[in-house]
């Protein structure tokens, strides 16, 4: 049986407590994961501190950038291993993991190496009343040891999205991937080892949240900052833990995102785009549209076309190139999503497509599958419209005016993403700018430029990642102010 070990102070470390890593496509056990106890986490944090005070902290930016390029190259060299690990941990199809998850895992290191080499610093001249002046300039220093806690939906992509900028800024990291998806994180540790990352700069600890590695990281007084992607409720627990020692936090949390389809949209392109926006990664993307508003003149046609398109979705083995949709990540999450399907029925929804569990007649029947689903006719106040489901389901609703749909789309405590489909340029700008979200896409969805700010407001998070936004979070800035006297007369 494959073993996923911790990586602490430059060495792979076993532990006596182990848990099963399960392939959600067929429910089989694929690896044993070594759970880090409190002492192991403390050793990782101490190793991180020694690395920041020592070899890694003294590495000049150009050499840090060179190291990040080597990491990207090594991920690409081991592409097949990463692909296999990501598919077996998540059940996501090769068509997705090979084009999004693994390439982005490598790209995250390249982009932050590029940004590190060109990152500007502020400088101001201050004129003083006595005729003298001061110059101010900012220096960028690492925060120290950063605790990184990541989710299961895009495991490598979302872990490296934090590891790369944190290392670029000269920090050490202690990473805890989701207990559901330890595979690619362990391979990343192998990559760090292979490229010669100084011991302690990158540490990996496996485990769960409460009373396990997650909590040991977030409650440690020796962790200098916490960056977390996951559920809003978990964010709230981590915020409480971080408050004790007052430390910087960066949160990317849940979403209940709206899509707005205007009657003047390019119908076919919109349908293609909305199939991705609702069902990519089986709806397990924080940006997915769970509330779809369609302008009344095309409502019936759009809903019928969406239901027709769902017939061509192919659930199946992740390794099959024809598969377009995978399972839910776990039995627990499958039950949560099916619970919402049942709740939708109770709340009075009409099921336009799906709503059940598929049957395969083979080992996939032991996996955690649900049918892609479309529902309608729920009031905006329904729990299924208010709460994040994180599965392959959307609610479709007609609307009549721009003002009405803006109000309804913004009627949520989340504030992550919106997608707007129209060929009217003025409307595109008006509506996208009025969305209370961090990310508004027009005639597109999940189109990423890694230099741009990424994140949300309200229950969707705190702060922005991406480009210089990440660099600023992972840096301690010191302003140096120098008074320059006038020449004595
Ligand atoms: P989760 O919150 O259950 O778990 C995320 C991580 O937190 C895991 O590593 C878990 O072990 C750890 N954890 C759980 N409880 C903890 C605690 N008390 N202390 C410390 N660590 C703890 O999230 P998930 O189920 O893995 O991911 C799905 C959720 O993540 C969805 O809500 C989704 O919207 C959100 N998400 C948001 C973004 C974004 O960019 N905004 C991206 C991806 C996922
Ligand atoms: O693309 C990214 O950088 C990013 N953070 C994606 C998040 C997806 C959420 O599930």
Could you outline the blueprint of secondary structure elements for this entry?
Layout (H helix, E strand, L loop, with lengths): L1 E3 L1 E3 L2 E3 L4 E5 L6 E6 L3 H16 L7 H17 L1 H12 L3 H25 L4 E5 L5 E10 L2 E5 L5 H14 L3 E5 L6 H13 L6 E3 L8 H6 L6 E5 L2 H12 L5 E4 L4 E5 L5 H13 L9 E7 H15 L20 H16 L3 E4 L19 E4 L6 H4 L6 E7 L2 H8 L4 E2 L1 E5 L3 H10 L4 E4 L14 E2 L2 E2 L4 H7 L1 E10 L5
Parallel strand pairs: 1-5, 8-9, 8-11, 9-10, 11-12, 13-14, 13-19, 14-17, 16-17, 19-20
Antiparallel strand pairs: 2-3, 4-5, 6-7, 7-23, 12-22, 15-16, 18-21
Structural class: alpha/beta
Level-2 CATH architecture of the largest domain: 3-Layer(aba) Sandwich
Number of strands: 23
CATH topology grouping of the largest domain: Aldehyde Dehydrogenase, Chain A, domain 1
The bound ligands are: nicotinamide-adenine-dinucleotide, (2E,4E)-2-amino-6-oxohexa-2,4-dienoic acid
Strand content: 15-25%
Helix percentage range:
25-40%
Mean of pLDDT = 98
- Rounded radius of gyration (Å): 24 Å
**Which strand order does the major sheet show?**
15-16-17-14-13-19-20
- Uncertain parts: none
Number of domains: 2
Distance between the termini: 82 Å
Query: What's the CATH superfamily of the largest domain, by name?
Result: Aldehyde Dehydrogenase, Chain A, domain 1
Oligomeric status:
single chain
Major sheet attributes: 7 strands, mixed
The total of helices stands at: 15
**What is the class of the largest domain in the CATH system?**
Alpha Beta
């Amino acid at each position: 049986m494959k073993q996923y070990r911790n990586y602490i102070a430059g060495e792979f470390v076993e532990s006596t407590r182990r848990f099963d890593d399960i392939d959600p496509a067929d429910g089989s056990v694929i690896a044993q994961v070594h759970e880090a106890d409190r002492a192991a986490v403390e050793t990782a944090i101490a190793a991180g501190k020694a690395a920041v005070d020592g070899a890694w902290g003294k590495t000049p930016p150009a050499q840090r950038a060179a190291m990040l390029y080597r990491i990207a190259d090594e991920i690409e060299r081991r592409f097949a291993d990463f692909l296999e690990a990501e598919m077996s941990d998540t059940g996501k199809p090769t068509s997705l993991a090979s084009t999004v998850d693994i390439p982005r895992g490598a790209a995250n290191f390249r982009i932050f190496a590029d940004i590190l080499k060109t990152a500007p610093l502020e400088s101001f001249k201050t004129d003083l009343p006595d005729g003298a002046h001061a110059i101010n300039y900012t220096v960028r220093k690492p925060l120290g040891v950063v605790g990184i806690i990541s989710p299961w939906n895009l495991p490598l992509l979302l872990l490296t999205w934090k590891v790369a900028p944190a290392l670029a800024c000269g920090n050490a990291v202690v990473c805890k991937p989701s207990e559901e998806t330890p595979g690619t994180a362990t391979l990343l540790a192998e990559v760090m080892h292979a490229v010669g990352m100084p011991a302690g700069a990158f540490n990996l600890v496996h485990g769960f949240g409460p009373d396990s590695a997650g909590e040991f990281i977030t409650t440690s007084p020796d962790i200098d900052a916490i960056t977390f992607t996951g559920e809003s409720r978990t964010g709230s627990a981590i915020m409480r833990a971080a408050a004790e020692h007052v430390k910087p936090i960066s949160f990317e949390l849940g979403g209940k995102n709206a899509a707005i389809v205007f009657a003047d949209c390019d119908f076919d392109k919109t349908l293609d785009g909305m199939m991705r926006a609702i069902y990519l990664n089986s709806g397990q993307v924080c940006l997915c549209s769970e509330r779809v508003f369609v302008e009344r003149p095309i409502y019936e046609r759009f809903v019928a076309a969406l239901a027709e398109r769902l017939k061509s979705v192919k659930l199946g083995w992740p390794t099959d190139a024809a598969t377009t949709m995978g399972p839910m990540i776990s039995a627990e999450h499958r039950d949560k999503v099916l619970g919402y399907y049942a709740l939708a029925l109770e709340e009075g929804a009409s099921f336009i497509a799906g709503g059940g569990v598929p049957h395969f007649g083979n080992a996939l029947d032991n996996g955690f599958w649900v049918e892609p689903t479309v529902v309608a006719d729920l009031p905006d106040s329904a729990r299924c419209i208010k709460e994040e489901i994180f599965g392959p389901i959307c609610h479709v609703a007609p609307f009549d005016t721009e003002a009405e749909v803006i109000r309804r789309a913004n009627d949520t405590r989340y504030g992550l993403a919106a997608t707007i489909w129209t060929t009217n340029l003025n409307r595109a700008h008006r509506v996208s700018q009025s969305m209370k979200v961090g990310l508004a896409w027009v005639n597109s969805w999940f189109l990423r430029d890694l230099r741009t700010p990424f994140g949300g407001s309200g229950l969707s998070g705190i702060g922005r990642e991406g480009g210089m936004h990440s660099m600023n979070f992972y840096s301690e800035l010191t302003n140096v102010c120098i008074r320059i006297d006038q020449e004595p007369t």
